[in-house]
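Issue: ligand-bound run for NAP - logging full I/O for the record.

Environment: standard queue, default settings, no custom constraints.

Inputs:
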Amino acid sequence: MGWLNGRVAVVTGASKGIGRALSTAFANEGASVVCAARSEALLNQIVALIHEAGGRATAVAADLSTEEGARLVVERGLEAFGHVDCLVNNAGDSGPTKPVQEYPLEEWRYTIDSDRVIAGQADARGTTPEAIRKSFLERSPLRRMATADDIAYAAVFLCSDHARSISGQCLPVNAGEPAS
Ligand SMILES: NC(=O)c1ccc[n+]([C@@H]2O[C@H](COP(=O)([O-])OP(=O)(O)OC[C@H]3O[C@@H](n4cnc5c(N)ncnc54)[C@H](OP(=O)(O)O)[C@@H]3O)[C@@H](O)[C@H]2O)c1
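Outputs:
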């Protein structure tokens, strides 16, 4: 018996990275998964993997920075599975590569519209990704970096009945790394 049996989950950004781990984890726990992003071929790959493992999933190619794209994903999810119970708003990209305070309004809106975090900050800070990675490990009390699976299973928990009394909370999955 999976933690998400009978649920339907929309996972945005399902074509790559954390979104693939989320899609797999949700399907393994019994959810039907609406896998959404712009890259149709990559979405078809993850959906095929889920089907091969005996799970249920459908791919929807859409630009989620637009209202039209967001509506399409929900409509296709309803057509495929009849209801939608969980929204995992994971889609995002590296966005503009400069300190936040230097963003023009247009770039700020683009960043917010598709739930993007500011990557490329290594460039903006004049350092390297490896140096940033090293500093994460040094600051983590657990001496590890959170993996995509760590994030996926935290999301599975939050969408399950085990979290039924949790609402409006933040759950950092960051190996105890203090904010900087
Ligand atoms: N990795 C990290 O260390 C880290 C840290 C903090 C926060 N995050 C956040 O976690 C999320 C996933 O990160 P990741 O590392 O897995 O990133 P990733 O590998 O770059 O994947 C980003 C996903 O978002 C999708 N996406 C981007 N813009 C989209 C749009 N306009 N419409 C639809 N889909 C869009 C991409 O798909 P297509 O290109 O196919 O559309 C892709 O599937 C992001 O929101 C990121 O900001 C990541």
